[in-house]
Amino acid sequence: MRWIALFFGLAISQGFSEKIPEGLREVTADQVPGIILEMRYSMERNITGKAIYPDGRAWLRRETIQKLTKVARDLREKGYRLVLWDAWRPASAQKALWAAKPDGRFLTPPGKISRHSRGTSVDLSLADKSGKILEMPSDHDEFNAKADEDFSDVPKEVAKRARILRNAMFAAGFSGVPDEWWHYDLRDWGSYEAIEGKGFRD
Ligand SMILES: [Zn+2]
Fold it and tell me: Could you tell me if 113 and 194 are in contact, meaning their C-beta atoms sit under 8 angstroms apart?
């Protein structure tokens, strides 16, 4: 029987598990306290209407996770939890999104590198400390005036929450983009290469 135990021991430690591309780490609530994974591209609730990720797990560069951990601690003191809508995005997913909405104002066309493919970018929303998802200025990938950083067109308390998220992200070393209140990048995202992850998650 010993060889069987040895075989399975090796299989668990070396084979059968997915090989994570170099540079990526899994995002878990152990590291990023209280984070709620609501990975929209693993659900039908996204612009393609289909699940384009095989499951709801999330992956980022270590530096991105470290900064996100700071944000989660800061927000916890204020009574909020992070909700993660997207993180590292394989090129195959980027293509599927482009096929559903081929508009360069909102999405990176195939052939150009999406910031999400670098493992430096996150799409985030907020929940309260009990995990209840809170109303924010718009839904994920809702490309209209409510999605931009001018929050004068949304209720005051919603605008306040979006600013709380923005302040916490900026304080931890992220930058934002003017047209998507939910999207944040490491400030030096441009110095990171894309992580292709061929055969992983695509
Ligand atoms: Zn994004």
Answer: yes
**Number of Cβ atoms within 10 Å of the Cβ of 72:** 20
Q: Is the dihedral of CA 68, 73, 75, 81 positive or negative?
A: positive
In a domain, 133, yes or no: yes
Task: Dump pLDDT digits (tens) for 71-88.
Answer: 999 999 999 999 999 999
> For the domain that residue 58 is a member of, what is the CATH number?
3.30.1380.10
Cα-to-centroid distance, 132 and ligand 1 (Å): 22
Quick: pLDDT tens for 149-172.
999 999 999 999 999 999 999 999
User: How many structural domains is the chain composed of?
Assistant: 1
Does 12 fall in a domain? Answer: no
Range of the domain at 142: 23-191
* Whether residue 77 lies in the annotated active site: no
57 alpha carbon – ligand 1 mean position (Å): 16
